[in-house]
Design brief:
The chain has a domain of 340 residues. The strands form two sheets. Strands 1, 2, 3, 4, 5, 6, 7, 8, 9, 10, 11, 14, 15 and 16 form a 14-stranded mixed beta sheet that branches. Strands 12-13 form a two-stranded antiparallel ribbon. A hairpin with a 2-residue loop joins β7 and β8. It is α+β, with helices and mostly antiparallel strands. The protein is elongated. The longest helix has 40 residues. α11 packs antiparallel against α12 and α11 packs parallel to α13. It is built from 17 helices and 16 strands. 31% of the residues are buried.
């Protein structure tokens, strides 16, 4: 039986931070069955095309070599699961809720020196052609945990309303011997929420391995991970539909607008709205669409869109299968891996600054921690934070557009400001402590000043020779000096100094 034609592709990406060294994380991944995959050229030339697309310094981050796993200072490490083919399914809420079954064609994980990991689940859809199905897959398949719990007294488990609006009834992942179904029942027990309110789905926990936990643990063997994009994953999606490609490129000369600018579908595809549009303003919707759309190839029926949660493309079936689909899996996937790493790393640094216990730590401890943060941040800027990754014009434009939409420039400026303020605070505290030490030294010098004066007088050559040679007089001067010093010390003590 011939294979059905490809309709759409979907890559769900989970950026997360971890609280341990990258060496320990990599060891834990390998013990859980993940395989370190060095980059290699193949006979299909796809890897070569991807490799030469990027600048040389960017390749050093994206493409691992065979011995890099032994290098503790490499910027990143790439892993894959032993089984790359499987099934990703979910069911919509309600008795009549529709079930979706998509093919898993790849599962990967890249770890970075900044304490960030990117888990990616690559899916193919060959069964669902309707645009409503594409929207549902992107919106509901990416969910990690409930966005809210119902306040209604009749909804005892708190999941009825959220499953009807944002959350699927269940999500299931089959990969090799693994078969995990997440029903979100964890959230029906409110006693667990205090320990782990953002509990990750069972299939992700199983994928990562038992050494990882989304709950902060006192146990040393547990590696704490935390997702950075709230209750959902980032989505890279390509939809190949000839009819919609024609509609989107239709140009209305009277209003001087393209079809996509007024299209409800394009808005929902862009912003991953599975059912209704989340914006109901006739003024705001076109503005948001314009800002998020990259329409360089609109006359050829190809559109790109970028939001804080998505990178999507719509095109015709022929161009999509022959040209765009491989690029979505390789070139654009790598670009957004970098961009998500920037965003996650900056948030991670900001959290490290925010969690500094300024009042509880000594100045030396604070200096050591700030020095560590600043050292890691400089390394991140030098080795990972690129303002341009390719010489290709379209790649430059897409990268710059995504850079702005994800707010990376603002995050960099904010973090620079936070670190500068922290440095200024340490300088102030250090100056105050040095002034206190100088004041104490001045006080001690003042205490012994009378003694020094008297001793100086006693030792003056100008005094009568009989005084200098008289032991009683010398002892008298010494005694007076001691008494004066004691009186001064008692005075200072009573003053509370």
């Amino acid at each position: 039986m011939p294979q059905k034609s490809l309709v759409s592709t979907h890559i769900f990406m989970l950026p997360f931070t971890f609280n341990d060294t990258i060496a320990k994380v990599n060891t834990a991944l390998r013990s859980a069955g993940w395989i370190y995959k060095p980059f290699m050229f193949n006979e299909h030339h796809e890897n070569y095309n991807e490799f030469v697309y990027f600048y040389d310094h960017v390749r050093e981050v994206l493409y691992n070599h065979q011995k890099q796993i032994q290098n503790k200072h490499a910027p990143s490490y790439y892993f894959e699961t032993p089984h790359q083919r499987g099934r990703f399914s979910f069911k919509m809420a309600g008795k009549e809720g529709k079930s979706y079954h998509l093919n898993i064609v790849g599962v990967s994980l890249r770890t970075f020196i900044t304490g960030v990991g990117i888990l990616a689940i690559e899916l193919e859809n060959r069964d669902y052609r309707d645009e409503r199905d594409i929207l549902a897959i992107n919106d509901f398949g990416r969910r990690l945990y409930p966005q809210f719990l119902s306040l209604k007294s009749k909804d005892k488990d708190g999941l009825h309303d959220v499953k009807g609006a944002l959350l699927p009834d269940w999500v299931e992942m089959q990969l090799g011997d693994m078969c995990e179904r997440e029903t979100f029942a964890y959230y029906t027990d409110y006693t667990k929420l205090e320990e782990d309110a953002t509990h990750l789905p069972s299939y992700i926990n199983t994928l990562l391995g038992e050494r990882f936990s989304s709950r902060a643990s006192q146990k040393q063997e547990k590696i704490y991970i935390e997702p950075i994009i709230d209750d959902r994953m980032f989505v890279i999606s390509l939809y190949m539909n000839d009819a919609y490609a024609q509609k989107m490129k239709h140009y209305d000369a009277s209003s001087r607008t393209y079809g996509y600018e007024k299209s409800d579908f394009w808005y929902k595809f862009l912003f991953l709205d599975g059912t209704n549009k989340t914006c109901q303003s006739k003024h705001l919707c076109p503005k948001l669409v314009k800002e998020a759309t990259y329409d360089r190839w609109v006359e050829w029926g190809t559109l790109f869109g970028i939001t804080r949660y998505s990178f999507v493309a719509l095109t015709g079936s022929k161009f999509g299968k022959e040209r765009l689909e491989p690029h979505m899996r390789t070139l654009y996937f790598q670009i957004f891996t970098l961009l998500l790493t920037y965003r996650a790393s900056l948030l991670h640094f900001s959290n490290r600054v925010a969690k500094l216990k300024i009042q509880d730590n000594t100045l030396k401890e604070l200096q050591q921690e700030v020095r560590s943060i600043y050292s890691d941040y400089i390394r991140f800027q030098n080795n990972l934070l690129f303002r341009e990754v390719t010489a290709q014009e379209q790649g430059i434009e897409l990268f710059n557009k995504a850079y702005g939409i994800l707010g990376i420039d603002k995050q960099v400026k904010d973090l620079d400001s936070e670190i500068a303020e922290l440095h200024n605070y340490i300088q102030i505290v250090q100056s105050e402590q040095e002034n206190q030490k100088l004041n104490k030294l001045n006080t001690i010098a003042g205490i012994f000043l009378p003694t020094s004066v008297i001793s100086g007088i006693a030792g003056m050559n100008s005094l009568p020779e009989s005084w200098n040679n008289n032991l009683d007089i010398t002892l008298t001067f010494a005694g007076v000096s001691v008494v004066v010093t004691i009186l001064l010390l008692l005075y200072i003590y009573k003053k509370g100094e």
